[in-house]
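Input set for joint prediction.
Command: fold jointly, output tokens.
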Amino acid sequence: MNSPWKGKAKATNQDYDDLRPTITYRHLLSNNLGVRDPLRVVALCDSDAFYAACERIRLELDPSVPIVVQQWESLIAVSYPAREFGISRMDKIKDAKKKCPNLLAVHVATYKEGEKEPGYWTDIDTRTHKVSLDLYRRESNKIISMFKEALPTGEVEKASIDEAFIDFTRPVREQLLERYPYIAQVPVDAPNGIDSPLPPPPPIKWDDLGTVILPEEIDSAGEQSNIEVDGDATWHDVALSIAAELMRKIREDIHSKLGYTTSAGIARNKFLAKLCASYKKPNSQTILRNRAIPDYLHPLPFQKIRFLGGKLGDALAKEYDVSTVGDLLTVSLDEIQSKFGENALWVYEFLRGIDRTEVKEKSALFKSMLASKNLPKPIIQPSDGHQWIRILAAELALRLNDARVSMPTLWPKSIVLHARKGYETSRSKQATFPFVRNVTVDVIATAADKLWKDLTDDAKTVNITSVQLAFTGLEKTEMGQKSIEGFFTTRDVQQTSLKRSREDDEPLVSPEKTLPTSSYVEAVSFKCTRCRKTIALREDQATGGPNEVAQRLATLRSEHGDFHFAQDLAHSTDGSVPVPRGSSSKRKKVESEGIAKFFIKK
DNA sequence: GTGGATGAG
DNA sequence: CGCTCATCCAC
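tokens >
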């Protein structure tokens, strides 16, 4: 009999009574057990000192160089070689350099007023620049793609810019059946048919699969090699070992192809995978077997558990005046429920190594997209807001169009501008985002400028200390196949003139006083019959001779038609980014600068 | 629709 | 630590 830990025998043993479930042929052969699958295996894989690694690779440096990434005066990433010098994220750049004179400090890329794309400038100033995490997002996506490619039947959930959960249950199941064909069929003489338990599992070779966490009594008996002669292994352990094997291969692949080292945790569910991923870093992986769970969790400060790191964890600690998981095991579910209501059940289960949350790819990847900037020097003149808006707009344009490479039909329902005035809480304004094909800086900035006007109203002076610009309601727009016809009838669309009744949604550039002077303003937009949006020329395109403007408007209409075509095409085929037809060639380069650029990236 | 709270890193 | 980003929910 294993006594999981000393001192607290009986009552808590039951807390972990699901660690060795009997596994039957039904479990193995049925396909949709989901989170209750006794052979479930989940991994959390995260990149080591990710931002630092991105910069190191961008600069083609040796992995051994001590490098940190700085954001203004503080550090946001410290490479492992730099940590050897005792540098931590809390340090100021100066202290870090004191600890390591050879330290390479790279400032994150920034958007700079007047520049369309983020870059690495020499004159970085928090008053005029805004940090860009773009490089890291792109690199992150590469890694995620490799997970998905390697595991066509696995589920991959991006958890943050440098972490992903991977559900290995299916890939492992496939391997189990392939490697051990004798369990793929219920034996004729099985006593309970498909509900008979599986035969004893094969011996497991844990060598090279990572660090295997062991229960205390085995662990203290020393000799990791003991586990190889462990007669107590289960089929779940086999499953873990296969996942570890797959995980290791993928990690090696990522390392050789992209250069990043990663650390992974492999266990029966998400929270345990996440927990043991940090057991040993960098460039390593850790496996938590079910039988080791009680000993592993018992002494653990529960505030290290995902979602218990904040107020909830504090409240728990305070309420019961305790700090470890073991301490909390004596608290009944009812008791927790009476004080923590909603959260009680999952807290209770987490403490017992249970986590029923699924690994699920986020369908939209995200529901909103936000770019923000705290202003060291507050905006006083409302007119000074525009420069920041353009910078935020540039970031959003880049990110949205980037996301569209893999998701061409991604569309934001609305755009929101937040501004905080001094100490006051922030105020916001939002509007429906216009349905234009090319989401350029200008399109976004124009929409945002309007919101800005609403927010600052007509105040002569303001005191704005923070600005945030966001897309919300980001979704894949679904469109019918027949709408391709819509493209071919674009001519009709073009004929459609501005004289429409009344609009229920705001046009991007409404003919009103927000726009300066130009007498053409009212003639520089059209309303598409298809999407019922008003599409307008940029302000700077709306100037010049009437013929010129008319020409540009025609181009715009054509592009808009292209947009519908592209959307439809993307929807009806494989999702690859379609090339707009016969457009740009005959187009003058007058205005394409900010346009083509964004649609087809690179 | 707006703003606050929470949490991750 | 200060900053950046995302989600959820009450009003």
